Amino acid sequence: MKETTFALIKPNVMKKNKVGSIIEKFQSAGLEVSGVKMIKVSSKLCEKFYQEHKYKPFFPELVCFISSAPVIVLALTGLNAVSLVREIMGDTDPKKAKPGTLRFEYGDSVGENAVHGSDSLESAKRELDLFFLPGEIFIK
Ligand code: DAT
Ligand code: MG
Predict the structure, then answer these.
(1) Residue 31 near residue 23, CB atoms below 8 Å
(2) What residues line ligand 1, using a CB cutoff of 6 Å?
């Protein structure tokens, strides 16, 4: 099924100057960039984005990290985009991620694991709505 999912390139990748390598990986897997922008995420937006982790011990450091520097937010469209993006990203923990995945290659730790990708179609809709206005996504 053709889907649109949400991805976010985290501050540690921005520091490494590797945004192009991340987008290239998504595009070469057949995903189209249907939305893209560089933004600085406020703590408030970040708390909404990661609401499911609100009571986890790592929540404060997660919010602090994501809102520490500008990030790239992406809408990615293609066949099975939600699961495809998760596959390309790899395990949450870069140490457990398979070679060739983004988190294996660009992740520094569980917290600073390079990229976010929605975990379901429902999450994708919620997250796209948080970061993009209706006119900012262009699906062919
Ligand atoms: P994912 O990003 O693979 O969907 P998740 O939803 O479990 O993983 O967690 C969201 C983010 O929270 C994750 O990308 C990084 C951070 N995180 C998760 N578990 C953590 C931990 N044990 N310590 C520090 N940060 C963690
Ligand atoms: Mg998650």
Answers:
(1) no
(2) 53, 58, 62, 92, 110-111, 113, 116, 119
